[in-house]
């Protein structure tokens, strides 16, 4: 019975350690640690805003960077510096970043609304509008609202 309790305690400790390792580490980093493509992206699309904070998150083999700008915008980048998510809070995502088909769909179906958040992955895009409506698009077409 004593061995069973010892085994259970060891198992719980090992499980907690594993969960902690998988949870990832968030670390504040300086601008010079941000991948060059991310810096170029910010300069080209948000050049009139200053970087206030950069958080690097490591989860297993994945590394992402979350950059906060002085207007409240946050941009998430992959390890290589490709943007994953742009959250402009209440401001519009710069129009040159919104794919033309998405901009046309929003203008046609939600006149007067602006894209305030844009996420991309291999499957397509997720969009949040200024009226809190969330839309999903494949690479070619509208998929739905949620």
Ends distance: 53 Å
Q: What share of residues is helical?
A: 25-40%
Radius of gyration from the alpha-carbon trace, in angstroms: 20 Å
**How would you classify the quaternary structure?**
single chain
With helices defined by DSSP (H or I, 4 residues minimum), what is the helix count? 3
Uncertain spans: 1-22
Shape designation? globular
The profile of the biggest β sheet is: 9 strands, antiparallel
What pattern of helices and strands is seen along the backbone?
A: HEHEEEEHEEEE
Indicate the proportion of strand residues: 35-45%
- In the sheet with the most strands, the strands line up as 1-2-3-4-5-6-7-8-9
Summarize model confidence as the mean pLDDT. 88
How many individual β-strands?
9
Structural class comes to alpha+beta
In short:
This protein has three helices and nine strands.
Describe this entry's structure for a reader.
The chain is an alpha+beta fold and 146 residues long. Helix content is 29%, strand content 36%. The protein is built from 3 helices and 9 strands, in the order H-E-H-E-E-E-E-H-E-E-E-E. A 9-stranded antiparallel β-sheet has the order 1-2-3-4-5-6-7-8-9. A hairpin with a 4-residue loop joins strand 3 and strand 4. Mean pLDDT is 88; it is low at 1-22.
Walk me through the topology:
Blueprint: H1 2-23, E1 25-28, H2 36-46, E2 51-59, E3 62-69, E4 74-78, E5 83-87, H3 100-109, E6 115-120, E7 124-129, E8 134-138, E9 142-145
Antiparallel strand pairs: 1-2, 2-3, 3-4, 4-5, 5-6, 6-7, 7-8, 8-9
């Amino acid at each position: 019975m004593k061995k069973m309790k010892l085994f259970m305690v060891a198992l719980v400790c090992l499980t907690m350690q594993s969960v902690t390792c998988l949870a990832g580490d968030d670390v504040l980093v300086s601008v010079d640690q941000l991948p060059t493509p991310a810096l170029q992206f910010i300069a080209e699309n948000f050049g009139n805003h200053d970087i206030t904070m950069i958080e690097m998150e490591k989860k297993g083999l994945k590394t992402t960077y979350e950059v906060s700008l002085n207007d409240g915008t946050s941009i998430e980048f992959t390890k290589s510096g490709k943007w994953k998510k742009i959250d402009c809070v209440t401001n519009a995502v710069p129009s040159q970043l919104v794919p033309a088909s998405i901009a046309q769909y929003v203008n046609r179906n939600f006149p007067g609304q602006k894209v305030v958040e844009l996420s991309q992955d291999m499957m397509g895009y997720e969009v949040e509008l200024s009226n809190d409506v969330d839309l999903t698009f494949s690479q070619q077409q509208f998929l739905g609202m949620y």
